[in-house]
Amino acid sequence: MELFGYKIEKKIGSSVVDKGSKSFVAPNLDDGSTVIDGGGVHAFSVNFDTAFKTQQELIAKYRACARNPEAESAIDDIVNEAVVLDPYKDPVTIYLDKLDTVDVPKNIKDMIATEFDVISKKLEFNKSGPEIFRRWYEDGAIHYHIIFDNDNVKKGIKELRYIDSTNIKKIKEVIKEKDKDGIEVVKGVDEYWIYTKESRGITQTLKVALEAVAYCDSGLYDKDKEVTLSYLHKAMKPINQLRMLEDSMVIYRITRAPERRVFYIDVGNLPKTKAEQYLRNIMNKFKNKMVYDASSGTVADGKDTMSMMEDFWLPRKEGGRGTEVETLPGGQNLGDMDDVAYFQKKVYQSLHVPSSRMETEQSWSFSRTGEITRDEIKFQKYVTKLRKRFSDLLYSLLRTQLLAKGIIDKGEWNVYQENINFIFQDDGYFSELKKLEIMTSRIEMLDTISSGEMIGRYYSIEWVRKNILMQSEEDMDVLDKQMEAEKKEKQAKNTGGDGDDKAPDLY
Question: In the Cβ-directed half-sphere of 127, how many Cα atoms lie within 13 Å?
């Protein structure tokens, strides 16, 4: 099937411009792709080296920043909130109830749900979900090569292989041709991937079909809209500043912490040359070169001791105070860490992680949501936005699987996609407290209505269940069946036992 092949032939326009409207300007292609002009009667050559190097260098910087301890801790918080692993629940599930609004048959809904489970297993999302999300977050994009069984494409996706973001680039080739008036107009846009791999000085380049790669980016681009940026991009400056500040502080403390001595050596009326020689002789005679080797636990002759740790030896002419030894104090205020704490906070703020999470010694108090900080609320909204963007990868894989198996066509997918949602499991502290408080408020309102005997007079039981308890039709059906089963179990115990009418132990 040509659609999912490794290579593509010269096929004019993956995206074709409307023939009724001619223009010499290419359509809006600002999505991080490299745009080139081609086609028509003109030959062209493109050097992708610059674009690849720019992207590779940027991703390398992102990965280096992610190894910073503070940045890594903040990223861990984001990843752990976004993808939650649970031994009993899937980290992400598909929600298809909205498909009822477009009259999708139930068998199609069931097949969509089944194929999503297949995709999830191919990705090993239940096991590797956090790692996948982390790659996407750090690099700003994630790519998977979609592999099919060439003998039977209708079996669906056979395997998904991760592609390093530094080795692949999306290309959009603007196809132009001359009209009858000799004016170059845009005929269409040919989209494909360029995969490049360098090994032992040999660079291999491959043109890959657009549909053969599942792709999801961050949605952030540079000013020219040609380079995809990571969510770490805005944090690079404070991370580098923090790293330099910590390095400089270490150097300062090493150089300023020890006490050093100043030796004033009386050289009398000796000439300058003889005075310097005399000073060196005295220094070599009394200078202590024995140092402690921490690696071996021995004392050895320190040939490579740091000059910054050495004492000062100064000559003193006749008429001075004679030979004298003076001790210089070590540096003061070496415990001041306010500037380091400031940049640590800046790193967390740039990544939208509440700075309170930086305080590892703080303990949580499980209280009401009124005590949740505004930063935690903003953080939850930020994670929700990240999940929504990351879902593009799941949409891409699900679309390819459904089209390959012939379950739906492209036109149907365009309609269905708007009504398909992915629900990520959530175990956030704020979310749990919010759910508990909402449930408590509903039960309190239900008690108020029940005690006032308003149910049956002003409100029906069904209305109360739908509007106060917020139970869906499916929830009510399940609960009704459960309550009926419990009622029958209770009656069976009361009538089939020894006559004891005590309440049954349902648990």
Answer: 4
pLDDT at 136 over 90: yes
Q: What gap in Å lies between CA 249 and CA 243, rounded to an integer?
A: 10
Q: Could you tell me the residue range of the domain that residue 295 belongs to?
A: 259-328
Residues 36 and 114 placed together within one structural domain of the fold: yes
Residues 207, 322 share a domain: no
pLDDT in tens, 154-199: 899 999 999 999 999 888 888 888 877 778 887 888 889 999 887 7
Cα Rg for the chain, rounded, in angstroms? 35
Residue 141 lies in a domain: yes
Q: Is residue 201 located within the same domain as residue 53? A: yes
| Run of H or E including 388 | helix 374-405
What DSSP line would sit under 26-54, residue for residue?
A: PPP-TTTPEEEEE-TT-------HHHHHH
142 and 170 inside one domain: yes
Are 175 and 29 in the same domain?
yes
CB crowding 381-411: b at 16 or more within 10 Å, else e: ebbeebbebbbbbbebbbbbbbbbbebbeee
Helix (H) or strand (E) holding 446: helix 429-451
Its pTM stands at 0.70
User: 3-class SS at 180?
Assistant: coil
Helix, strand, coil % (nearest 5) of the chain?
50, 20, 30
Query: How many structural domains compose the chain?
Result: 3
DSSP classification of residue 455: B
Between CA 196 and CA 297 the distance in angstroms is 51
Same domain, 155 and 77: yes
User: Which of 387, 405, 427 finishes a domain?
Assistant: 427
pLDDT tens for each residue of 327-350: 666 556 656 778 888 899 999 999
Q: Is residue 251 part of a domain?
A: no
Instruction: Give the pLDDT confidence score for residue 5 in this predicted structure.
Output: 46
